[in-house]
Amino acid sequence: MALISDFLLAAGAFGAAIYCIVLSRRLSRFNTLESGMGGAIAVLSAQVDDMTRALEKAGGAAVASTDSLEGLTARAEQAAGRLELLLASMHGLPDAPPDPALEDAGRRVRFVRRRASRPEEEAAE
After folding, report:
1. Exposure class string for 33-69: b at 16+ Cβ within 10 A, else e
2. What are the tens digits of pLDDT across the range 73-121?
3. Which of 1, 60, 64, 103 is most exposed, with minimal Cβ within 10 Å?
4. If you ran DSSP here, which 8-state letter would residue 101 be given?
């Protein structure tokens, strides 16, 4: 009985050794940087680094534009307050007398635009 158990123990150790050798070869092929998954992992790692840098730049640009927009919003609010004050002060003014130039409302005003004449030398170019 001891001989059979020793034989089974040796067979198990031999099987485990063969399994470890096969696993070692597969793992070495898996990790090769040129053709295996190791190469794909290296490429993906480089892409992740590039994307991280791009996100950091985009975050910096977003912060700068946020600061700019806050300043512009503050200026717009100040201008709106001044406009409200101007409109409120206009309510107390009397109506303006009619303009004699605008009395003839049925007549249309026509504007004609003409190009400035060019010297002959420029026209030849």
Report:
1. eeeeeeeeeeeeeeeeeeeeeeeeeeeeeeeeeeeee
2. 999 999 999 999 988 888 777 776 766 666 655 566 666 677 766 666 5
3. 1
4. G
Helices (H) and strands (E) counted in the chain, each on its own, are 3, 0
**Contact in structure between 30 and 38 (CB atoms under 8 Å):** yes
- Give the integer Cα–Cα distance in Å for 40 and 34: 9
Q: pTM of this prediction?
A: 0.41
Output the CA angle 86-88-94, nearest 5 degrees: 95
CA 96 to chain centre: 53
What is the identity of the amino acid at 85?
Answer: L
The encoded tokens of residue 14 equal: 């031999």
Residue from 21, 22, 20, 42 nearest 31 by CA: 42
Specify the 3-state DSSP secondary structure of 107. coil
